[in-house]
Specification:
Blueprint lengths: L1 H14 L8 E6 L2 E15 L5 E5 L5 E4 L7 E10 L2 E12 L2 E11 L2 E6 L3 E5 L3 E10 L10 E10 L11 E3 L9 E7 L5 E16 L5 E7 L5 E2 L18 E8 L3 E8 L2 H4 L6 E12 L14 E15 L2 E5 L3 E6 L2 E11 L9 E4 L1 H43 L1
Parallel strand pairs: 10-12, 21-24
Antiparallel strand pairs: 1-2, 2-3, 2-11, 4-5, 5-6, 6-7, 7-8, 7-9, 10-11, 13-14, 14-15, 14-23, 16-17, 17-18, 18-19, 19-20, 21-23, 22-23
Membrane topology: Single-pass type I membrane protein
Family: Belongs to the LAMP family.
Function: Plays a role in short-term synaptic plasticity in a subset of GABAergic neurons in the brain.
């Protein structure tokens, strides 16, 4: 056992390939190392037969800087061969206003079958390394049944200002920080018209069974880079037009095979509204794939679970209004998953690209009502303090005058 552990440790030092280790690739420009990328990356392409084709980036992939990189840009190319197929994975990093932007990536197979990804992620200050637990991006695709995904796990990246090793200064992605980042998602119909807008910060509290059979909990932020899954989202049901439909669904994909779905309805039989002039959020579904990087020491890694909450009846709003709520809204999806929604602005069944007039949630209204009360109370207390101080000072002055007499 000790020999095996020692061998694994030595092997890790040599090529970084133990089971839980994350590959580290040096970006070479001739005989110079000009950058470093730590990532465990793979691609998933949903095939017509319903199965997923997975392409993994091997640990021995060759990584070079493209000599044609323009000024203020770094083009990085990964190349490897698997099953007689030559793979080329190109990453484009651009310097804008002293920030590094991960602008685009492409995957080629035998110089053809090009898949284009648009992460458009801000890596922060160009002198810093960038750290992020997960980067998940969907390819541009006109076929809703095909949605290639680029998944980069346990990332640490630096391609500018690289000095032998990662900088001590590190920019951490918003999804890994304690507060979730606000995302902006627009669902469009086949005419590219926006039918549903969803802005908000989403955090998930997930409970799972660990290896020792104890129940553990983690807080996970849904990244603002989450993408809309076309095959699981729709502006209208099959038997209705966008203007006539009573149901719309938005499904966001993120991490590695996770998705969060929101179903909205304006069906009076569901909303309970006799006049039929309101919409609600009436169902939430979370699909999650257990993995150690997100749910440490989970009992069943790679297991996919689905949690669904029906008849939610949240965000009750007039049809000609959008719903806005800065305050935290809690949705108990099931016994193992709690969703926290904040900084929301939501509008399904849209007739124009702009949000309708906002209808604020009761929590925000309560806060706005309390502010003048708090300010008024504070001013009243201040007046009392000043008055008491004045009376005390006046009494002391009289006493001193009397003593002098």
């Amino acid at each position: 056992m000790r020999v095996a552990l020692l061998f694994c440790g030595l092997f890790y030092i040599a090529v970084i390939t133990c089971e839980d280790a994350i590959p580290v690739y040096n970006v070479n420009d001739g005989d110079k190392i000009v950058g470093r990328i730590q990532t465990k990356a793979h691609f998933v392409d949903s095939l017509m037969n319903g199965n997923d084709a997975v392409v993994k980036v091997p640990e021995d992939a060759k990584v070079t800087k493209d000599k044609a990189s323009p000024k203020d840009e770094v083009w990085v190319r990964f190349t490897w061969t698997a099953s007689s197929i030559l793979y080329e994975w190109d990453l484009n990093f651009k310097l804008k206003n002293e920030n590094v932007i991960f602008e685009s990536a492409t995957l080629k197979q035998n110089k053809t079958n090009i898949q284009i990804f648009k992460p458009m992620m801000n890596f922060g200050n160009w002198t810093h390394a960038y750290s992020c637990k997960f980067v998940t991006t969907a390819a541009n695709s006109n076929l809703p049944e095909k949605l290639p995904r680029m998944i980069m796990q346990s990332n640490k990246i630096q391609v500018f200002n690289f000095m032998k090793n990662f900088s001590e200064d590190v920019t951490t992605c918003p999804a890994d920080l304690s507060a979730p980042d606000v995302g902006h998602w627009n669902l469009t119909n086949d005419k590219s018209e926006i039918c549903l807008r969803f802005d908000g910060a989403i955090r998930l509290n997930v409970t799972y069974e660990a290896m020792n059979h104890a129940m553990e909990s983690v807080l996970l932020n849904v990244p603002s880079s989450a993408y809309i899954i076309p095959s699981e989202s729709y502006c209208a049901t099959a038997d209705a037009s966008v203007n006539e439909t009573t149901e719309q669904r938005l499904t966001l994909g993120f991490y590695d095979d996770w998705s969060l779905s929101y179903a909205f309805t304006r069906d009076a039989n569901i909303t309970g509204d006799k006049r039929g002039d309101h919409w609600i959020l009436h169902a939430v579904t979370l699909k999650r794939k257990m993995m150690n990087v997100l749910t440490p020491n989970c009992l069943n890694p790679e297991k996919v679970e689905t949690d669904e909450l029906k008849n939610v009846k949240l965000l009750y709003t007039m049809n000609d209004r959008s719903y806005g709520c800065i305050s935290d809204q809690i949705v108990q999806v099931d016994k193992d998953v709690v969703a926290h929604l904040s900084h929301m602005r939501v509008q399904p069944f849209m007739l124009s690209p702009q949000f309708f007039a906002e209808e604020k949630c009761s929590a925000d209204l309560m806060t706005s009502d309390l502010i003048p009360i708090i300010i008024g109370a504070a001013l009243a207390i201040l007046v009392v303090i000043v008055l008491v101080a004045y009376l005390i000072g006046r009494a002391r002055t009289r006493r001193q005058t009397y003593e002098n007499i």
